[in-house]
Design brief:
The protein is 43% helix and 19% strand. The chain contains 11 helices and 10 strands. Helix 6 packs across helix 11 and helix 7 (191-206) packs across helix 10 (255-268). It is elongated. By secondary structure, the protein is α/β, with parallel strands linked by helices. The longest helix has 18 residues, at 130-147. Strands 6-5-4-1-3-2-10 form a 7-stranded mixed beta sheet, with helices on both faces. Strands 7-9-8 form a 3-stranded antiparallel beta sheet. The chain has 2 domains: 3-185, Rossmann fold, CATH 3.40.50.300; 189-291, Winged helix-like DNA-binding domain superfamily/Winged helix DNA-binding domain (Arc Repressor Mutant, subunit A, Orthogonal Bundle), CATH 1.10.10. It has helices spanning 17-25, 30-35, 66-69, 93-109, 130-147, 167-179, 191-206, 215-221, 226-238, 255-268, 278-288; strands spanning 3-10, 44-51, 54-61, 82-88, 117-123, 156-160, 213-214, 242-245, 250-253, 290-291. Strand 4 (82-88), helix 4 (93-109) and strand 5 (117-123) form a beta-alpha-beta unit. The structure holds guanosine-5'-diphosphate and magnesium ion. The site of guanosine-5'-diphosphate has 22 residues, from helix 1 and helix 2.
Length: 297
């Protein structure tokens, strides 16, 4: 049996938990999810993946049922590797800390959570300015310094959002959190895979947005054999970077690529410097992530 990893997303209703899961783990278009809100989640929404020889469960807990998660149903938290608490950045300090206090109590209650890491996202930072975000983070940190003056309570707090300018920074935060529960060598990238990812990125960098490309022609454009090109296109499709059109005879870059392209050009010119780059790590993680049917878990 491979090992199991468990990540919980929890927070007040309408904070953005389901949106985050859908946008980053299910390739949903962030533009559409900002315009067309989702139905509130009922109970727990579970997504299962395989990643680096583990079974990874991501549990999105309905905010409407928080009182149950904190009382009679609190065994849902057992054996979590990570609990990510998601708040609307505009929530009051009092609401945020009283929610976090419940999570701290739960962590203390279960032995299986002794190694569990707690993170907080102050989400929807696109609705505030940077100074407000920093003030809020400091206010939360100061509250916990006062509450636990001796040993403290260490928790990383991030500002997140699915809006255009925050999309990749947030994606990188999530990837780094995800990778933090795996041994380092699991996620190391060998030279041939590094070259593969470099080629994936070159295809994105050198295709224009909104243009339909004939797959046959791309083989010439990138000087790749048809099979090698197809290999890269399958990877880019898996990452949600391209979409296939006309029975896979054509491709087009997606909105995910559009957001990535903004920073990509300068990196591509200096590829050797980006071995440790966040985008390479992100590609590596999400290329290794495979959805598994619920019944197999
Ligand atoms: N401005 C803004 N709104 C967001 C963001 N993420 C989610 N939302 C909105 O927040 C609302 C609640 O999202 P949802 O994912 O259903 O929240 P949940 O109850 O925590 O699962 C929806 O209307 C989303 O469009 C974001 O990054 N910025
Ligand atoms: Mg939800």
């Amino acid at each position: 049996m491979t090992n199991k990893k468990k990540i919980i997303l929890v927070g007040p209703p309408a904070a953005g938990k389901t949106t985050i899961t859908k946008v980053f783990f299910q390739k949903s278009n962030p533009k559409i999810l900002l315009e067309k809100p989702l139905e509130p989640t009922r109970g727990v929404h579970t997504s299962l993946f395989s990643l680096f020889n583990s079974e990874l469960g991501i549990f999105d807990l309905a905010g409407q049922e928080n009182q149950n998660w904190f009382s009679k149903d609190n065994d849902i938290f057992e054996h979590s590797n990570i609990i990510t608490c998601i708040f609307d950045i505009n929530s009051s300090l009092e609401n945020i800390t009283s929610f976090l206090n419940n999570i701290i109590d739960i962590k203390a209650k279960f032995d299986s959570l002794s190694e569990c890491k707690i993170f907080s996202f102050l989400h929807k930072i696109d609705t505030v300015d940077n100074s407000y975000l920093n003030e809020k983070i400091n206010a939360i940190k100061n509250y916990y310094k006062r509450k636990f003056p001796s040993n403290g309570f260490y928790m990383e707090i991030f500002g997140t959002s699915i809006a255009k300018e925050n999309y990749y920074p947030t994606f990188h935060i999530l990837s780094n959190i995800l990778i933090s529960i795996y041994p380092e060598d699991n996620a190391s990238i060998n030279l041939s895979e590094y070259e593969n990812i470099k080629q994936d990125l070159k295809i994105i960098a050198n295709c224009k947005l909104s243009v339909k490309y004939k797959v046959l022609n791309l083989s010439n454009k990138f000087n790749l054999s048809f099979d090698v090109l197809k290999f890269h296109l399958e990877r880019l499709d898996k990452l949600g970077m391209i979409e296939y059109l006309s029975y896979k005879n054509f491709i087009r870059l997606t909105y995910r690529s559009e957001l990535l392209k903004k920073d990509l050009k300068k990196e591509i010119d200096d590829m050797d410097k980006i071995r440790e780059d966040n985008d390479i790590k992100l590609f590596n993680i999400f290329l290794n992530l495979n959805k598994i049917p619920l019944s197999d878990f």
